[in-house]
Amino acid sequence: MIDADRIGRSFRIRGTTVHAVRDLSFHVAAGEFVGCLGPNGAGKSTTIKMLTGILAPTSGRVTVAGLDPTRRRTAVAREIGVVFGQRTTLWWDLPLRDSFELVRLLYKVDRVQFRERLGELTERLGLGGFLATPVRQLSLGQRMRGDIAAALLHDPSLLVLDEPTIGLDVVSKAEVRAFLRDLNTERGTTVVLTTHDVGDVERLCRRVILIDHGRLAFDGTVDELRATVPGETSIEDVVAHLYLNSSALRTRPPRPGEDSPTATA
Amino acid sequence: MRVYLLLIWTWTRAAARYPASFALMTVAGTVTAALEVAVIWVVFSNTTTLGGFDLSEVMFLYGTSGLAFAAADLLFSNTDRISQHIKAGTLDAMLIRPVGTFVQVAADRFTPNRAGRALQAAIVLGVALARLDVPASRAWMIPVMVVCGIVIFTSIWALSGALQFLLTDAPEVANAFTYGGATLTQYPLTVYGADLVRGVTYVLPLAFVNWQPGLYVLGRADPMGLPYALRFLSPVAAATLAVVAVFAWRAGVRRYRSTGS
Amino acid sequence: MPTLHRRFLTQPPLLSLYAQLVRYGFRKHATYWGAAAAGAFTNTVFGVLRAYVLIALWRARPGLGGYDITDAVTFCFLTQAYIGPMQVFGGGLEVTQRIRTGDIALDLVRPAPLLLWSLAQDLGRAGYLFLARSLPPTVAGALLFGIVLPGDAAVWAAFAASFALGIVISFGWRYIVALATCWLRDDRGLAVMSLVLTMFFSGMMLPLVIFPEPLGTVARALPWAAMVQVPADVYLGRADVPGALAFQAVWAAVLLSLGALLTRAARRKVVIDGG
Fold first, then answer.
1. I need a surface site. Which of B72, B95, B223, C259 has the fewest CB within 10 A?
2. Cβ C38–B172 below 8 Å, yes or no?
3. Residues from chain A contacting residue B95 (CB–CB below 8 Å)
4. What is the per-residue pLDDT across A213-247, written as a single tens digit (0 to 9) for each?
5. A102 in contact with B at a CB cutoff of 8 Å?
6. Partner-chain contact B93 A94, CB within 8 Å
């Protein structure tokens, strides 16, 4: 489903070149559920942007559903659904239902198919109560469910989510997780998500990719991740241990308020 | 194009849910545009000709330019919000859709408010034509020039949008070309300096919106002495500018996707 | 609460607070230098286009309204230069945004009066935009067309005073428009109305001296004339200076007083009645 071959991405910021991602290679097969972890600024979002065709890699090659997202952006877009946790892809001023209608037009989803799919997503995600509410008035949990529904209306084979549980309360988080798990197991949709919440990883992901300083730091199962730090049993502590030992963090202490509240999750 | 029309129809239905706000903004747009007519009125209360053209002829030029500009403004001027989309990150949300960015930006938050301005320009044009008595043998050019004008102004909106990929912090620069172009073409080009006229004939082809074809409709010799054939070249100028605009827009999007800013 | 306010209000905070606010307004806008440069460019382009139309008109009617061609061109570029500092197209005040978000309630209970607070910030903004957006179009106009340059220092002094008063008047008007949004559901209609009135009656589009009568007489008596037309006439040496400055001072006083009254009403509405 995804083939990343030594992809790299650098930016020129005020004359100096910053390597956000370098030499990153991984493969995701159809039907997998992959969680992507990494400290802030590690290059997770940049990677997601390269997978979805928003950003072109500066080196290496990536294919998604057998297509190059840089050259065939619109063809890739039809195959994937994308959710950004930090900002909505819906339209603030429009009721959720109208946003879905716009998405339908953009993906040229057949009207009958659309109605059927929307009915199913409405039931599964519990959208019924706020389909007529403008997006700006939705709670974060409602908005996130709306965003997920919008990303799935065209029934993509791959769903990519950038921090889908950020800022959600415990109940909303559980609902989103249950939905994503069912989507993966029942419908066979491949899911790739980035997160700071190790709860997402423990409860959802069969496989974990850890990106640090723009490089691949770990790729394996959750159990294998746990085994990397002998003596630690909680994933939370294992990840904390790995982050603390990374050169990236030793040179740059996290700014206050920068990290999501993993400790309380 | 079909997707674009469906999108703007959906946005129009959304806007129709707030009829008071819609009516208010339509009236407001019409009143703002009427200021330009008020200026022409004040000018011609002081003189009978401006740059060698009388009131009816100036109203004709204003009407044709205004109609073309208003139509382009109504349908495609949302492209000048591109720098806002870049700053707010909403351009990323557009790039994950299987539709071109130009169509998406142009249709985004479409409101039909600006139709009032087109109507106002059409009325001025109608009054001008009633006073001018243009023979049918030359009147065929009027719809041609309005369509070419729409293409030219749309291309300028697209070019201004493309420019904003470079000047994200200074989107106002675009106004000089879009609204500036509309202002320039409201008056006979004889009022402007010769260099400026050459520039808008051979570089940014604003002269082909209404001036060159307008001279044909009005049956006037070119006061600047430029070749007679130019007055039939609006379709060529419009098509050329449109091609340039398409490439510029694509280059802008490519730049965004390759620099991330 | 109200007595507490009154006690604070009768003891004006130190002048240094306002000096600080002026500096803050200046600095805040200085960070958007790209936008200011773009504005200067656009103002210059429109200045050139308008100048040509005025030249054509004055060629057809030499001496119209008592101006010669150079006066008309000068008028055109001066008015383009006013756009930034006087915010001729409206807005420019933080108050509007604060009302929309409801933060205005916090501003209204501050010991410093909102009107003076906003005025100080606006003067800082105007100061920066004078440098960034007034000088470039004026210089461009001088180079491209040639403009009147008064040789008399007294004219420059009178113009400086008149220009400053113009900025205060423009602030007074915009402040009233901004505060009025406390009572309106949709402020966009008011914004457009303000734009149309300001553009047409200030002389921004055409000098008021060529307006047909009786419209011209009426227009020249309105506050918008005191923003654009009067300072330009002072610069061109075509105004009775004491009379012009007095006319501006009266409008400044009227608008600021109205602004103060509206502030009091807004405080009653927002703070005491709870919005």
1. B223
2. yes
3. 52-54, 73, 77
4. 888 888 988 888 888 887 777 888 888 888 877 65
5. yes
6. no
Q: Which amino acid is at A99?
A: S
B-chain CB neighbours of C129 within 8 Å are: none
Number of folded domains that form chain B: 1
| DSSP state, residue C61 | S
Sequence-distant (≥ 6) Cβ neighbours of residue B25 within 8 angstroms = B111, B113, C188, C189
Which A residues in the span 210-229 are in contact with B, Cβ-Cβ below 8 Å? none
Quick one: closest CA in B to C40, which residue? B173
Supply the DSSP symbol for A134: B
Give the C-alpha distances (Å, rounded to integers) separating A148 from A126, A176, A183, B91, C26: 12, 9, 11, 19, 45
* Dist CA C169 CA C165 (whole Å): 6
Q: In chain A, what are the domain boundaries?
A: 2-264
Q: Show the domain range for B31.
A: 2-259
Q: Which of C41, C46, C49, C67 to probe the B interface (max B CBs under 10 A)?
A: C49
DSSP H or E run through A249: helix A247-251
Residues of C in contact with B169 (CB under 8 A): 32, 34-35
Q: Any chain B CB within 8 A of the CB of C223?
A: no
Q: Which residues of B touch C49 (CB under 8 A)?
A: 180, 183-184, 192
Q: With DSSP H G I counted as helix, E B as strand and the rest as coil, what are the percentages for chain A, rounded to 5?
A: 40, 25, 35
Tokens of C260: 């103060």
Q: How many residues does chain A have?
A: 265
Instruction: Give the closest of B47, B173, B183 to C57, CB-based.
Output: B47
Show residues of chain C in contact with B31, CB under 8 Å. 192-193, 196
Chain B contact for C30 (CB, 8 A cutoff): no
The architecture of the domain spanning A2-264 is: 3-Layer(aba) Sandwich (3.40)
Q: Between helices C33-60 and C69-86, what is the axis angle to 10°?
A: 150
Spell out a b/e string for B232-241, using b for 16 or more CB atoms within 10 Å of the CB, else e: ebbeebbeeb
Between C49, C56, C206, which is nearest B42 by CB? C206
Q: Mark yes or no for CB contact C34/B183 under 8 Å.
A: no
Phi first, then psi, for residue A134 (nearest 5°) are -60, 145
How many CB pairs lie under 8 A apart between chains A and B? Answer: 71
Contacts of A56 (CB under 8 A, 6+ apart): A50, A70, B257, B258
Query: CB neighbours (10 Å) of residue C83?
Result: 22
- Chain B CB within 8 Å of residue C199 CB: yes
* pLDDT, one tens digit for every residue, chain C (275 residues): 444 444 444 455 567 888 888 888 888 888 888 888 898 999 999 999 999 999 999 999 999 989 999 999 999 999 999 998 998 888 888 888 888 778 888 888 887 888 998 999 999 999 999 999 999 999 999 999 989 999 889 999 999 999 999 999 999 999 999 998 888 777 778 888 898 899 999 999 899 999 998 999 999 999 999 999 999 999 999 889 999 999 999 999 999 999 999 998 988 887 766 65
- Residue pair A148/A182 in contact (Cβ under 8 Å)? The answer is no
